[in-house]
């Protein structure tokens, strides 16, 4: 696993009083508890959504599924998988803990693997370092992730953890690359209108073709691009 400088915004360490999850602006704490914060995921989507689907979204966003400890664990794992040290931001900047919870609420088949995976990673952490996953050091968390980050590891004792980490990685990357930050990271423009100025002149010459001046004016002149095409009764293009 690539040991980049992860969890820069989390400031987590072994803490007797635990960790507090907050969804919103990054905050700091004056007491012994660190705050794991992320940008909230938008809770309303209208594009491409029927009214039934929008109602389903509202119901899922209104429901809470994970306990605070579980949501913190998810946030830490999301940040390890996709840290915020990239110019386009990382998992916490894109609200991925909220996305993971939404997907788990929406897909019954994810509930046991994610909740059970959190329990597994806590047990592994306690066995190795004497505390659950959110209350060990950053290097200790990364060492556990290194154990389970590679699907080809054959150790049977690690298989539940490997399956869990693979699922978390898939959810994190899927969620990120369906957000505006992910689109920006990919350079994805979507259905953005562009300008077509006709077949290149050298191609036309190669095939002994040329445009008629009338068609150039009507079809290729970009100053006319916002004018709605009009046709006469004989289907001749007027504008």
Would you mind describing this structure in some detail?
With 239 residues, the protein is mostly helical. The chain folds into 2 domains: 19-186, no CATH class; 193-239, no CATH class. The protein is 46% helix and 4% strand. It contains 9 helices and 2 strands; from the N terminus they run ββααααααααα. The chain has a two-stranded parallel ribbon with strand order 1-2. Helix 2 (68-81) packs across helix 6 (159-176), helix 3 crosses helix 4 and helix 3 crosses helix 6. The longest helix is centred in the middle third of the chain and has 22 residues, at 108-129.
The proportion of residues in beta strands is under 5%
Q: Strand order across the biggest sheet?
A: 1-2
- Class based on secondary structure composition and strand pairing: mainly alpha
Most strands sheet: 2 strands, parallel
Helix content: 40-55%
Briefly, what is this?
The chain has helices at 51-62, 68-81, 96-106, 108-129, 138-148, 159-176, 180-186, 201-206, 213-220; strands at residues 19-23, 34-38.
Record the SSE blueprint:
Elements lengths: L18 E5 L10 E5 L12 H12 L5 H14 L14 H11 L1 H22 L8 H11 L10 H18 L3 H7 L14 H6 L6 H8 L19
Helix pairs in contact: 2-3, 2-6, 3-4, 3-6, 4-6
